[in-house]
Amino acid sequence: MLPCARWLQPALVFFSSALLTWGGNCPPSCLCPDPHTVDCSGQGLTRLPDSIPLDVRRLLLSNNWIPRIPSDFLVLYSDLVYLDLRNNSLSQIEPGTLSTSSRLVFLDLGSNNLTEISKGTFGESRSLIKLRLGSNPYLSRVSKDAFQGLTSLRELELERNALSGLQVGALSQLPSLRLVRLEGNPWVCNCNFANLFTWLMENRHKLPNGDLECSLPMDGRTVALSQLSQESFRKCQETLTLTDLLIIIFSGISVSVAAIMASFFLASTVHCFQRWSKGSKGDDEESEE
Ligand SMILES: *[C@@H]1O[C@H](CO)[C@@H](O)[C@H](O)[C@H]1NC(C)=O
Ligand SMILES: *[C@@H]1O[C@H](CO)[C@@H](O)[C@H](O)[C@H]1NC(C)=O
User: Fold this and answer.
1) Which residue, of 116, 169, 193, 223, is most buried by count of CB atoms within 10 Å of its CB?
2) Planar angle of CA 202, 207, 208, nearest 5 degrees
């Protein structure tokens, strides 16, 4: 028994120390400047490193080629407060990746390949304060409810994307918003832009870079928003009035047609009835003879 125990003891020590170093140590090719920070930026990673410590709070993954983050990522790393995924190859964020219980305060998804921000993408993450979504050159659709439930969000970056329009609800639903970056998008100042224009004029102080530019639908000319006024969008209301007018005219026509048809039906019924009563009288006269 003695030789066996003598052999077992170092083995146990070896395995436990191996486990400890494996669990507490940095993933290969990453730096861990303090116990809660893992810095894997600029390492040419094509996927998330395997052995990230579970208690990581700051995870820096910028300047890599990471194409996706698994939807259970923030369940696993539930202490994560700061996540930098800038300049990667993400094309979408799977719904459920972020959730209400997430502690994330800072999320950088800038300079990726996102195309759409749909409803519930951020799972009503109530801790989120800063969200960076700029420089996604194919990002052309942002749902009206994309940022729903982000009650603490103060800073939202949507600059240098491919947005030609944005439903105003996406911004007006954010109660804590202090700063929004929207410059460098191919905005089109058509009638769909009218509501956003009104919001932007009322919330000018939230735009750090001042003026935005948009192209006019008539001739594609680019103008600064400050050159436009509510007056510029009055034509949209005129278009509405024209539609209203058309509806009125058409409903007028339908009412007249209905009236004509009703009177025709009534007239025919009366006529039929008269003929029938005449006919039956004739029968009576015939039978009397
Ligand atoms: C983005 O990441 C790639 C790969 O690491 C790097 O070569 C490039 O310089 C980065 N771009 C920016 C703007 O940081
Ligand atoms: C980015 O997305 C666009 C459109 O979905 C696609 O055509 C392009 O190849 C993607 N680029 C990269 C680097 O993944």
Assistant:
1) 193
2) 145
CB of 63 closer than 6 angstroms to any ligand 1 atom: yes
Q: Is the CB of 195 under 6 A from ligand 1?
A: no
pLDDT digits (tens, 9 = 90+) for 139-154: 999 999 999 999 999 9
The answer, yes or no, to whether any atom of ligand 2 lies below 6 A from the CB of 138, is: yes
In the reported structure, the alpha carbon of residue 113 is separated from the centroid of ligand 2 by a whole-number distance in angstroms of 6
C-beta 140 within 6 A of ligand 2:
no
**Distance between CA atoms of 8 and 29, rounded to whole angstroms?**
33
Name the residue with the closest Cα to ligand 1, atom 8. 63
CB 89 less than 6 A from any atom of ligand 2: yes
Q: How do residues 104-129 score in pLDDT, each as one tens digit? A: 999 999 999 999 999 989 988 999 99
- For 152-208, give the DSSP string: T--EEE-TTS--S---THHHHT-TT--EEE-TTS--B-SGGGHHHHHHHHHTGGG-T
Residue ranges of E strands in the chain: 37-39, 58-60, 82-84, 106-108, 116-117, 130-132, 141-142, 155-157, 179-181, 213-215, 222-224
User: Looking at this protein, which amino acid is placed at residue 188?
Assistant: V
Using the 8-state DSSP alphabet, how is residue 97 labeled?
Answer: S
Length in residues, the chain? 289
Q: What is the pLDDT of residue 19?
A: 41
